[in-house]
Amino acid sequence: MPTFFFAGRRIEKKMPAKMIEQLQSEIETSLAKVEPRAELLLCELNGGTLRLFIDHPDGVDLELCERVTRQLRALRETYGLEVSS
Q1: Residue 59 above 90 pLDDT?
Q2: Is residue 66's pLDDT more than 60?
Q3: pLDDT tier at 15 (50, 70, 90 boundaries)?
Q4: What phi-psi label fits residue 47: left (phi over 0), alpha (psi between -120 and 50 degrees) or beta?
């Protein structure tokens, strides 16, 4: 039997806004434990990628993004995770 591949667009279901708000609240609670001065500005889900935009009074650097990413280890099992300022 020959193998056929289909190179089409994946259809993604859009997550309801209420679920995004709940996810953002959980992330904010988790971050407050290790980075209390960091602020989650925006949380968006695009396909299977969760994008987080953060801010900090002293600025956002790579080390802060890495600490936030490590703190959210459980989310990386479900989503691709991007953390930036």
Answers
A1: yes
A2: yes
A3: low
A4: left
- Residue 14 has what pLDDT? 62
Q: Are 64 and 54 in contact (CB under 8 A)?
A: yes
> Residue 50's CB: how many other CB atoms inside 10 A?
23
Q: How many residues does the chain have?
A: 85
Neighbours of 60 (CB within 10 A): 17
54 and 72 in contact (C-beta within 8 Å)?
no
The H or E element containing residue 48 is: none
**Is residue 83 within 8 Å of residue 65, measured between CB atoms?**
yes
Q: What is the identity of the amino acid at 25?
A: S
Own/partner contacts of 16-23, CB < 8 Å, gap of 24 or more, are 20/44, 20/45, 23/50
